[in-house]
């Protein structure tokens, strides 16, 4: 059975007309003879939307009960039983009531689509998962109902229902969206012009990305490789040279002038993996392109112009930015270069050639590096010195049995063997010597340096050319093999480097240690220039201009020039090494180490700053809350006690014994409350400073609960159900009493009148769980951890009920006794606090089969 098709109406905000458009589409399809039903539509009492339900078949909803209230949801079974051609199902991101079978409505719609039924639905941009945090940052309102972007992207059609911010606010003011009592609040909060404009831009950009994906799919399906200038895309080509930052900034300015243009950077790596690009330069350029809002890409290709153009056409680029050639004029006579070749092949893609300070600063002739070591070269020359005379003597003996072509082939075999052993120069020398020997000994006239037959001359010339060519090819292959082996070794070193940094607790120290071990250095030091120092060459040698950030090995280098090898990392950092001098070929890996060291230092400092900011923020919040508490919560009982004592000391009024007792009781109660508040503050301070004294011993929970109730005004509103056989726990008696008193007092405060707080306990493995269960309003799952923050009273704006330390202190004291305190939802409504403490003696577990073992008890249900 073919899967149904999904069509989604996307809106920037509530009220733009998504449901209205969906119902209009339903009427259009019904008029064309399509079987259309309404599975679920929410009109929000909007008259014009409700009118569109007339004439459409509306399926009954499913009614569910939750927490004493009745809710209606989409009846998926009814839709499947009816089997229409098209079902209209509103609110794609809706969260179903518990008990519905599926958590989200989009999951219901997936089941309907799997049954082969087309679905038309609606969603607002703020409900898309990828934009949820962005919308919250813009509007300040979190969206708890979200739908994965992939669900909407899979839709066959996504249609934007658009409306300007001013038009939507006019609809709001006319009462077409919300009832009159909500209009002013909505217009001044969520539906501000700035919010609506930002949400509208998000919706347009998200839809543009989806359209772009559809365009790419269409081009790929129809094998279209040409550029379609639907959107400006600027690609900048990076070689790994120092000029890359200039090119990136130039490309960013080009993209800036084309509003909404994409910026991409690409670096082409040769297919053999051997590259002359600087890892340090590429790392900095990658960071720069990402800071400017672009993306970095790396592709493999032997022909750089073809690879660049293939990438540009693949991303549908419209402009390509290249650096002007660094080669000299003489080199350009032999090859047009990447820039000219790319421009000639670019077609409709505009190519920008950007000049920079490195133009013309490159040698046009390549430097020669032998492919074999000096020992093999000596062996090659020795083989040539011995092999040529020996082969000549053997051929002299067999002169009558061999012709000149056979003798040439035998000498060619010898030259190839010399090339395999000693490389290019011994083989070329052997080829020239063999040419002379063949001329003197085997080419008529013999034993003179002349050649009478032109065919023999041609044969010898061809022999020399082939011998030299084979020698060059063999040497090139050896050099490439050597470079590949070195690249493989470098990759292994960098892989080990990444692993050691990721596994280490201190990335910078681990990186320097790995660097020292890899290159067998005595020490590796990361130096930073002091802010007050200058940048003159003399200060490069002055240790007072530098300070050691970190070092591995001893002794560290006090300045960059004090090391045997040093690498500059930007203007203010340097990596200095002491030990054996490293060859120039190792500088590429050293640059990668240096770049990673700078990144590790930067991340370490960012982490320190974040931690300092967090501590300062927490301290500031604590200080502010404490001042608020002192200004009100502590002053209130102190003022009550002072007023009562002052009244008793007054000579103006003759108090009766009953009045005096009442005033004394008021003063006493106020002082008790003040003592409790001060004790909580002191204990919280000791907890945070780690100076709270803990003296745990074995005690029974059944004894601790009544003691905790003695200081509470429970009046029979607490029921205790603790088994007699409950194991003893390890806890501090005084602290456990404080914890239980705070938890039970909090439960009594929020428990509804006429209902009791239940205290139960049970043993589970090697700990005991004590549960304090109330039937109050409860706490949402996402807010459960917030109730343990100091000076917080979640949802309680009454400032006369304490400083909000009870639960924070209870958790801190519990954890100090090696226990845990976690909140849980009370079935049927309310909050359950689960206090877990270790038992005094772990219970002995008899040996049982898996079938006989009892199932552990879980949460109370």
Characteristic key phrases:
861 residues, alpha/beta, Rossmann fold, 6-stranded parallel β-sheet, 5-stranded parallel β-sheet, 25 helices, 47% helix, Sig_transdc_His_kin-like_C, transmembrane, P-loop_NTPase
Descriptive report:
- With 861 residues, this protein is an alpha/beta fold.
- It has 5 domains: 217 residues, P-loop containing nucleotide triphosphate hydrolases (Rossmann fold, 3-Layer(aba) Sandwich), CATH 3.40.50.300; 122 residues, HUPs (Rossmann fold); 102 residues, no CATH class; 178 residues, Signal transduction histidine kinase, dimerisation/phosphotransfer (DHp) domain (Helix Hairpins, Orthogonal Bundle); 146 residues, Heat Shock Protein 90 (2-Layer Sandwich).
- It has 25 helices and 24 strands.
- A 6-stranded parallel sheet has the order 3-2-6-7-1-8, with helices on both faces.
- Strand 2, helix 2 and strand 3 form a beta-alpha-beta unit.
- Helix 12 crosses helix 14 and helix 15 runs parallel beside helix 17.
- The longest helix has 50 residues.
- It is extended and about 150 Å long.
- The C terminus is likely disordered.
């Amino acid at each position: 059975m073919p899967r149904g098709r999904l069509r989604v109406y996307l809106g920037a905000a509530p009220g733009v007309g998504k449901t209205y458009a969906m119902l209009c589409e339903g009427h259009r399809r019904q008029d064309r003879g399509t079987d259309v039903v309404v599975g679920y539509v929410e009109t929000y009492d909007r008259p014009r939307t409700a009118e569109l339900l007339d004439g459409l078949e509306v399926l009954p909803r499913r009614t569910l009960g939750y927490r004493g209230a009745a809710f209606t949801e989409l009846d998926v079974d009814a839709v499947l039983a009816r089997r229409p051609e098209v079902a209209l199902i509103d609110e794609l991101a809706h969260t179903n009531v518990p008990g519905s079978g599926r958590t989200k409505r989009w999951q219901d719609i997936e089941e309907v689509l799997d049954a082969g039924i087309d679905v038309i639905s609606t969603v607002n941009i703020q409900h898309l998962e990828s934009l949820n945090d962005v919308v919250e940052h813009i509007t300040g309102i979190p969206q708890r109902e979200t739908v994965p972007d992939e669900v909407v992207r899979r839709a066959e059609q996504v249609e934007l229902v658009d409306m300007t911010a001013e038009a939507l606010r006019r609809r709001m003011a006319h009462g077409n969206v919300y009832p009159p009592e909500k209009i002013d609040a909505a217009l001044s909060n969520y539906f501000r012009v700035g919010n609506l404009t930002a949400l509208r831009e998000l919706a347009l950009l998200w839809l543009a990305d989806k359209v772009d994906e559809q365009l790419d799919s269409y081009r790929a399906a129809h094998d279209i490789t040409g550029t379609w200038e639907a959107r400006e895309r600027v690609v900048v080509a990076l070689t790994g040279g120092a000029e890359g930052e200039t090119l990136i900034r130039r490309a960013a300015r080009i993209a800036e002038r084309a509003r909404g243009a994409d910026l991409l950077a690409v670096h082409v790596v040769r297919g053999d993996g051997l590259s002359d690009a600087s890892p340090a330069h590429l790392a900095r350029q990658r960071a720069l392109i990402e800071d400017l809002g672009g993306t970095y890409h790396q592709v493999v290709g032997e022909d750089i112009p073809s690879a660049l153009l293939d990438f540009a056409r693949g991303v549908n680029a419209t402009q390509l930015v290249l650096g002007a050639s660094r080669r000299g004029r003489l080199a350009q006579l032999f090859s047009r270069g990447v820039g000219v070749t790319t421009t000639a092949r670019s077609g409709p893609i505009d190519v920008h050639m950007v000049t920079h300070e490195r133009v013309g600063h490159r040698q046009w002739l390549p430097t020669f590096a032998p492919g074999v070591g000096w020992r093999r070269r000596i062996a090659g020359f020795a083989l040539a010195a011995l092999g040529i005379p020996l082969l000549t003597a053997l051929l002299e003996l067999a002169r009558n049995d061999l012709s000149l072509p056979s003798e040439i082939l035998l000498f060619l075999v010898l030259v190839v063997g010399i090339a395999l052993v000693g490389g290019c120069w011994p083989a070329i020398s052997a080829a020239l010597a063999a040419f002379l020997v063949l001329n003197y000994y085997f080419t008529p006239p013999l034993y003179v340096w002349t050649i009478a037959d032109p065919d023999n001359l041609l044969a010898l010339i061809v022999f020399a050319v082939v011998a030299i060519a084979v020698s060059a090819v063999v040497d090139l292959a050896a050099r490439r093999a050597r470079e590949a082996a070195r690249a493989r070794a470098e990759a292994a070193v960098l892989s080990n480097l990444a692993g050691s940094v990721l596994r280490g607790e201190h990335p910078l120290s681990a990186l320097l240690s790995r660097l020292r071990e890899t290159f067998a250095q005595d020490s590796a030091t990361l130096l930073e220039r002091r802010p007050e120092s200058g940048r003159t060459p003399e200060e490069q040698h002055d240790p007072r201009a530098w300070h050691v950030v970190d070092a591995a090995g001893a002794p560290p280098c006090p300045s960059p020039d004090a090391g045997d090898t040093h690498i500059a990392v930007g203007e203010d950092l340097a990596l200095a090494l002491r030990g054996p001098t490293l060859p120039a070929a190792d500088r590429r890996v050293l640059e990668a180490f240096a770049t990673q060291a700078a990144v590790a230092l930067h991340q370490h400092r960012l982490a320190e700053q974040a931690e300092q900011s967090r501590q300062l923020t927490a301290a500031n919040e604590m200080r502010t809350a404490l001042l608020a508490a002192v200004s009100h919560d502590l002053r209130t009982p102190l003022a009550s006690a002072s007023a009562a004592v002052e009244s008793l000391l007054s000579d103006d009024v003759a108090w009766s014994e009953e009045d005096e007792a009442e005033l004394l009781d008021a003063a006493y109660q106020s002082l008790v409350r003040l003592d409790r508040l001060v004790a909580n503050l002191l204990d919280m301070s000791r907890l945070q400073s780690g100076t709270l004294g803990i003296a745990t011993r074995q005690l029974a929970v059944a004894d601790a609960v009544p003691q905790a109730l003695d200081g509470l005004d429970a009046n029979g509103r607490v029921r205790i159900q603790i088994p007699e056989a409950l194991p003893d726990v390890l806890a501090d008696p005084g602290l456990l009493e404080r914890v239980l008193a705070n938890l039970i007092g909090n439960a009594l405060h929020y428990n509804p009148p006429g209902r009791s707080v239940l205290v139960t306990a049970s043993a589970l493995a090697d700990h005991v769980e004590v549960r304090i269960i109330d039937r109050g309003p409860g706490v949402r799952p996402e807010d459960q951890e917030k109730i343990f923050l100091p000076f917080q009273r979640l949802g309680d704006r009454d400032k006369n009920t304490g400083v909000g330390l009870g639960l924070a202190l209870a958790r801190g004291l519990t954890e100090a006794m090696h226990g845990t305190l976690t909140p849980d939802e009370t079935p049927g409504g309310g909050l359950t606090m689960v206090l877990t403490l270790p038992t005094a003696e772990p219970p002995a577990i008899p040996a049982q089969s898996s079938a006989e073992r009892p199932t552990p008890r879980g949460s109370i249900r």
